[in-house]
Amino acid sequence: MLLKIIPSMSADPLKGDTQSCQNKSEEDFPKSSPFDFVIKQFQGKRSSSGKRKEQPSAIEKFFSGFDFGKSEGKERQKIEETEINNCSADDQSEKENLSVEDESSQLISEAESPSGEQRFNQFMQKLGKKPNSKNLDLNNCALSAADVTELASLLPFLPELEEIGLSWNGCVGGTLKTLTAQFHHVNLLKVLRLNNCRLSAEDVTSLGEAFEIVPQLEELDLSWNSNIGGKLSLLTKKLRKGCKIKLLKITDCNLTAKDGESLAEILNVLPNLEVLDLSINKHIGCSMKVIAQDLKNVPGLKELNLHMCGLKQDSLQGLDTALQHLTALRKLDISCNKEIGGGFKDSAAHLASLKNLEVLDLHQCCVTEEDTTVLSQVIPLLSSLQELNLSWNKNIGVSSDPLLGRLRFLPKLKSVAISNCGLGKESFSSLAEAALHLPELEILDLSWNKCVGGNLKLLLGALKLATEIQVLRLSSCNLVAEDLALLTLLSHDGHLARLQKLDLSYNNTISDEGWMVFCQGLAIFKELSELDVSLRPSSCRACGTWFSELLAALTKLPALAELGMQRWVLSESQRKQLEGFNQDNKRNIRFDC
Known about the structure:
LRR_dom_sf; LRC31; alpha/beta; 593 residues; Leu-rich_rpt; globular; 38% helix; 17-stranded parallel beta sheet; two-stranded parallel sheet
C-alpha cells in the first residue's frame, strides 16, 4: 500500500508549489498527507559546510530505494527555473510596455512643444518684426543679452539665412561669441551688419574665427565700434586667400596707425573688394601710404571713403599713385582732411584717369589757389562725374582759374555743392554760365555765398533749363525780395515743377513784402516736401501778415511734410492757428518753430 500512496503524495506538493507561484489562495492547496512530516524530516537534513557527513539512519536506508527527494528536487528546480524565466519574461514585457509608454509620452510632448519655425516666429513677433528666414533684420531692437542667446539657439532652424542685421544694439557686445558659435548652421550668410554694438576684443576674435565657417560672406559692417581700435589684427589675421568679401565698412572705430598696417596686409586676400569705408578714423592717416601701396591688389574697388581720416600731403601723394590701379572706381571721398590742402598740385596726375568716377567729394579740404588751378584741369576730364562737392573751400571762389566755368564739360552732373566757397560775382557768373550746360542737374547747393543775394537772376536761364531740379539750397545767401519774386515767377511759368526741397533759411535780409509775394505763389510747388524759412541764430523777428498767406498755401501743398520757422515770433492767434492746422486740415506737417 505504501508504494501506491507515495507517488500520489509526491505530485501534490509540487502542484501546490506551482499554484503558490501563480498567487492562488491557501484554501486551494490540498491538505497535508501523514507522510509529509516524515518526508520533510528526511529532506530537511543537510550536511553542514565544513562538517563531517553524518551516517544515514536505518529509516533513511529503508527509503533510499525510493526517489522521493531527487525526483521531487529535480522537478522543483525545473519548475522554479520555468517560473523565473516566466517572471523575467513578464518583467521584460513590462519594461517594454513602459518603454513604449515613455516613447509615446515623449512624442506627445514633442508634438505639444513648438517647432523651430514656430519659436523663430514667436521671437520675431516679440520684437515687433516680421519673420524672414533669409533676412534677419534686428537693427535697433533694444536686444538684451538673453535675446542674443535665444537668437543663437534659433540659428539651426535658419539654414537659408543670408543677411543678419544687429546694428544699434549695445548688448550684442560681449555676447557675440554665443552667436558666432552657431554660424556653421548658417553657412550661406552673405551680409553681417554690427554697427554700434559695443563690440569687445573677445567679440572681434570670435568674429575672426567665424570667417572659416561663413565662406560666402560678402558684406561686413563694423562701423561705430570704438573698441575695435588697436585690435583690428584679431580680425584681419583670420582672413584667408580667396575671401569673398565685397564690402568692408569700419567707420569711426578709433583705428590706429597699426590697424592701418594690419588692413594693408589683408588687401591681397580680398580680390573681390568693391567698397572700403575707413571714414572718421583720424589716426589712420599715418599709415595711408602703406594702405595705398596695397590698393593695387583690389583693382575692382568701386568706392573708397577716406572722409576725416587725418590725411596729409604725403598721404595724398601715395593715394594718387594707387589711383592708376583703380580704374573701376566710381566714388572717391577724401573730404574733411584739412591738411591735404596744397597737396593737389603734386598729387592729382592720376585722378584724371578715373574715367568711371561718378562721385567726387572734396569738401573742407582747405584747397589752395594752386590746388584750384590743378583741379580746373583735372576735374573736367572726369566724363562720368555725376556728383561734385567742393563746399567749404573758400579759395575756389576767389581763384582766377575758371574751375566753376569748366563744369560745362561735365553734362552728366546731377549734384553740385559749392556751399561757402567764397564766390564773388565773377565766379558766380561763371557758374551760372556753366549751369546752362547741365540739363540733368537735380541738386544745387549755393548756401553761404553772400554774392548770390540780389544776383539770383544770373541763374535764371539755368533754372529754366534745369527741368529735373529737386533740391535748391540758398541758405545764408543774403537774398532779397527780388530773388524770391524770381523764384515765384519761375514757378508760375512752369519751371521748378519737380522741386521737393527748398532751403531759404538764414536770409534775414528778406522783407515782409518779399515773404508775402513768395507765400502768395508758394502753392505752385506741388511736389514740395520740405521748406525752411528759419532766421539766423541769436536773432528773432515778429511774423508779419504773410503768415496767413503761408497757411493758406500749405493747404494746397499735399506733399509738404516739414516746415522750418525757427526764431520767428508768432502772436497768440498765429500760434493757435499753427497748432490746430494739422487737425483742422487732416495733415501731419512737422513744424520746427
